[in-house]
């Protein structure tokens, strides 16, 4: 390559890397996998090394990138946040060790090998043991202050736990603790399902979803996302020298009550490092969260200081430690043939394209179908029927087509023509402004109705065991059910005679099965308001949110005519407009002095309205747990023809659901400050009843066991939660002990 060609190629690569960096850091919407991005950056770095005359100070190979966004105030890190050198190559890992071994004259160096959690970097600061600030990496020197959002994380203590004796590490006067905000696979799948049903582009992986959630302006929406944090790094600390190694640091973090890394290993020598990394690679498929590699660090802090940083003496954002590196696992992908593209129509009408593949082994399973997300993704990746495609598991859960092997494309590979009509009912498809999804707008579409019946049959909704799947399909196909409320007209005998098979191979449901379904439908009449709100399938309203809305309002009529929900939605609009019209906006600064003066006035007016709305939210018990988007969608639902009909039909059927509990001001009782986790089946109490007793006594109920869990209330067939509680030394109680505990509060 000539110097002129190199100069052109370097400019192209810098622009491409910078664009992908921005998509990744600022928007949490990368277009290419991490592996491809790292390869692009490596190619650029190699060219800059070969042609140093073209190296520029602002090259993305010399900077951290920048995750700062509009809407957040900025805060400086007391100690700069650095980045790690990445490698996918075991040889380069050994070279990393060889450099340190030569520097210190010692082959038997001690290392900490940590799983690399795939999340969003964060720095949390504690002063005198109190959480005072949480800041994103930003540009390394300064980040976005996301303290309000981070304080919603259930597993992050707001106060550090002091050591019980003099052998422990004292809580520092000030300490910056570095960590990662992440999301578990189960939560990722749940949020992405809601996202797709809303016609929005799904998140590519849990990391993107965690990073995007962290930057939401509404903290109630952040809290609803189920984010977690894990901590591992040390920034500034006063006084200095409290710990002298990675091992001692992690022990201190655990002692202070912070969530630390699982599966971290202390090892000596490069062979033990390699073995620990290979072990993590084998283990990662069993973990409930995403890991994309391992981080190797010198254990001894004094040796770390001697090894120093690359770029020392330059801007802090250009530093990377010589004493640590990240070994990233190459993504597991398979190559196979795309035989066809079919369209699935979901319960909300979203028409999702699905790749029909030649079966191929991927991550221990046989994959024959994979998501193509939406029409835009097919066009952007130029995916054609007949192509040889690459398949990965998005977030290590959902198989997805991530690209095409262009070298194997043949003239027979044809571009896919996205249907302009619903393949099920033939209705002309639509695309709502602001959505990437194509939808069937016909609410009576058989596919949508089948999906809705499947949903309400779920155990957490109306618990209509036996109604889902093929039974729902046949009820719709025969015209026996044209809307949810037709279920209440079903009778056991005609239902039992329904043919679930074909004319050639009949298979009747049977009277016994039909009777169970009819009895389950009858029981659903008495279910609480939260479950009925779920059954109505209001956009973005999940189980916990439905119960929160119910608890604030009490009755269905109160929800339908709510004065609180529109105000919660308006609060989010006000907050967003305040950021947009701020006279100090960096992204949208005032055009001139007149514009600045107008903005000052508008901003002040909005601030007054915001204060009034926030005061309303604070004085309304439970309102703070309802997100703005959920509030907006609920208001829109009950204002729609479908929502009004639902209220009318329920009244005609004599169904008047009420809340299982009413929201109250914070309760102080025997369980104040205590967190319970429920697992297994209790002898007499339902989970809802047990949860109500806990909350009535001032406690909280969590879905996962951690070091912060106070008690695990265990029944029969308790599973992994009970095992984890035993491993962590969490107190375990049965129903009898639990009832004696709540009796102290006079709770029946």
Which helices and strands occur, and which strands form pairs?
Layout (H helix, E strand, L loop, with lengths): L2 H23 L8 H17 L23 E3 L9 E2 L2 H15 L5 E8 L2 E8 L2 E7 L5 E3 L2 H4 L23 E9 L2 H13 L8 H9 L4 H6 L3 E11 L7 H10 L9 E4 L1 H14 L7 E8 L2 H7 L1 E2 L9 E2 L2 E5 L5 E12 L5 E12 L2 E7 L3 H6 L3 E2 L2 E7 L3 E7 L9 E2 L30 H11 L13 H8 L14 H5 L14 H14 L4 H7 L7 H11 L2 H5 L3 H18 L11 H27 L8 H12 L1 H12 L22 E5 L7 H10 L3 E3 L8 E4 L5 H9 L2 E3 L1 H9 L5
Parallel strand pairs: 2-13, 21-22, 21-23, 23-24
Antiparallel strand pairs: 1-6, 3-9, 3-10, 4-5, 4-7, 7-8, 10-13, 11-12, 14-15, 14-18, 15-16, 17-20, 18-19
Features:
about 750 residues, alpha+beta, D-amino Acid Aminotransferase, Chain A, domain 1, OB fold (Dihydrolipoamide Acetyltransferase, E2P), 6 domains, five-stranded mixed β-sheet, five-stranded antiparallel β-sheet, about 40% helix
Written account of the structure:
The relative contact order is 0.07. Helix 12 (446-456) crosses helix 13 (470-477), helix 16 packs across helix 17 and helix 19 (564-581) packs antiparallel against helix 20. By secondary structure, the chain is α+β, with helices and mostly antiparallel strands. The protein has six domains: 3-54, Helix hairpin bin (Helix Hairpins, Orthogonal Bundle), CATH 1.10.287; 74-328, D-amino Acid Aminotransferase, Chain A, domain 1; 335-415, Beta Barrel (OB fold (Dihydrolipoamide Acetyltransferase, E2P)), CATH 2.40.50.140; 446-524, 5' to 3' exonuclease, C-terminal subdomain (DNA polymerase, domain 1, Orthogonal Bundle); 530-652; 675-743, Rossmann fold. A five-stranded mixed β-sheet has the order 2-13-10-3-9.
